[in-house]
């Protein structure tokens, strides 16, 4: 039997974030006798899913802070290869990643756009950097993938969709994993003191993109009209302490649950009654898909691609809308419905994503969905 093709994925860490979830969802389902994943992790640290990745046959390479990313990558490619493909998930920096991969003779070089903004502003220096990196991506990529057209245009350029190398591949999830379970709902709500509460939920890193400021201001407004309202925040991140201080300043300490990051995040959706997602920017918004797979109605900002409206029940509002408008949308959202779960499975099942990636790595045809 021939050796499987080896694909090196380049990103920060195998944590609870969207990129790591996308890659691991595919890795669990891909035919590993034909394709194996390895991981170049730029954060240089062990994370949540590293041991699982190794148990599936993958290798994990941690970049040293003393080396540049390109030098760290060059060492992995030359000392631990050969690799049949490099799949880069590091936004604009993919230009340098793929340039390094090309110089090291890697035949398949993929840049993957997972977001439609970075929140880093548009200074002259920043614009110059993006222009230079887009040029390098287009020069060195054999394929440019994105979770949405919006993400593709942001990372690869406004005219990228007319480039035959650009393909949209919706992120996939394990739909059965996120299916509603009444027993788990009862247990989780009891564990967090949420019995008899109307639970507004959010899943996401505590960072500027996820806009916890808006989450808190909307929830504060909603709480004026719903005495039994509670807010369940799932995730961790650099802004968590700041958000905790804001909760106390708003007098919401007895209504907000900080649940932390969870490997079994599917259980946290069970406890919710409606999902709030007022992101400042998103390439796609996988948490929206996970919530709908659990049957939840969603209220999101209108910067979230409306491709995420799997069951037709999601509401998209401008961030400039009054908090009262947002609160009303949450309070009037329909109850949990299993039609959402069925719609998600039809459009966003991870098995289809894994199949598409395998075709790409093996050099067979994959087209825009």
Give a short synopsis of this structure.
The chain has 14 helices and 13 strands.
Structural account:
39% of the residues lie in helices and 17% in strands. It is of the alpha/beta class and 369 residues long. Helix 8 (212-223) links the parallel strand 8 (198-203) and strand 9. Helix 4 (94-103) runs parallel beside helix 5 and helix 11 (286-293) crosses helix 13 (338-348). It starts with a strand and ends in a 7-residue tail after the last helix.
Helix content: 25-40%
Question: Quick one: how many beta strands?
Answer: 13
Mean pLDDT: 92
Reported for the largest beta sheet, the result is: 7 strands, parallel
Q: Could you tell me the radius of gyration in angstroms? A: 21 Å
Shape descriptor reads globular
Major sheet: arrangement of strands: 3-2-1-4-5-6-7
Low-confidence segments, ≥5 residues, pLDDT <50?
A: none
Strand percent estimate: 15-25%
Our measurement of the CA-to-CA distance between the termini, rounded to an integer number of angstroms, reads: 33 Å
Structural category: alpha/beta
SSE order, one letter for each helix or strand: EHEHEHEHEHEHEHEHEHEHEHEEHHH
| SS summary, helix count | 14
**What is the subunit arrangement here?**
single chain
């Amino acid at each position: 039997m021939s050796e499987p093709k080896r694909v090196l994925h380049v990103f920060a860490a195998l944590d609870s974030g969207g990129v790591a979830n996308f890659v691991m969802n595919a890795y669990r389902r891909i035919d590993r006798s034909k394709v194996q994943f390895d991981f170049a992790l730029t954060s240089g640290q062990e994370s949540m899913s590293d041991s699982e990745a190794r148990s599936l046959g993958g290798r994990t390479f941690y970049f040293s802070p003393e080396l540049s990313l390109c030098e760290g990558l060059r060492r992995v490619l030359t000392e631990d290869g050969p690799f049949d493909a490099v799949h880069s998930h590091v936004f604009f920096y993919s230009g340098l990643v793929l340039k390094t991969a090309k110089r090291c003779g890697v035949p398949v070089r993929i840049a993957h756009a997972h977001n439609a903004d970075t929140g880093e502003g548009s200074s002259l220096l920043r614009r110059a950097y993006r222009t230079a990196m887009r040029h390098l991506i287009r020069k060195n990529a054999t394929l440019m993938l994105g979770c949405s057209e919006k993400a593709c245009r942001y990372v690869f350029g406004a005219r990228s969709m007319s480039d035959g190398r650009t393909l949209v591949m919706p992120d996939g999830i394990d739909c059965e994993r996120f299916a509603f379970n009444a027993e788990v709902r009862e247990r989780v709500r009891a564990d967090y003191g949420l019995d008899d509460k109307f639970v507004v939920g959010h899943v996401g890193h505590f960072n500027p993109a996820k806009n916890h400021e808006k989450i808190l201001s909307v929830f504060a407004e909603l709480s004026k009209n719903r005495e039994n309202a509670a807010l369940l925040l799932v995730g961790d991140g650099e802004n968590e302490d700041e958000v905790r201080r804001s909760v106390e300043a708003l007098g919401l300490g007895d209504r907000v649950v900080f649940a932390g990051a969870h490997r079994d995040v599917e259980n946290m959706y069970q406890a919710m009654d409606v999902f709030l997602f007022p992101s400042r920017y998103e390439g796609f918004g996988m948490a929206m898909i996970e919530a709908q797979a659990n049957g939840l109605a969603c209220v999101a900002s209108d910067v979230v691609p409306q491709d995420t409206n799997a069951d037709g029940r999601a509401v998209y509002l401008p961030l400039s809308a009054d908090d009262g408008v947002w609160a009303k949308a949450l309070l009037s959202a329909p109850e949990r419905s299993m039609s959402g779960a069925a719609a998600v499975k039809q459009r966003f099942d991870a098995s289809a994503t894994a199949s598409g990636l395998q075709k790409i790595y093996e050099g067979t045809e994959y087209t825009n969905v």
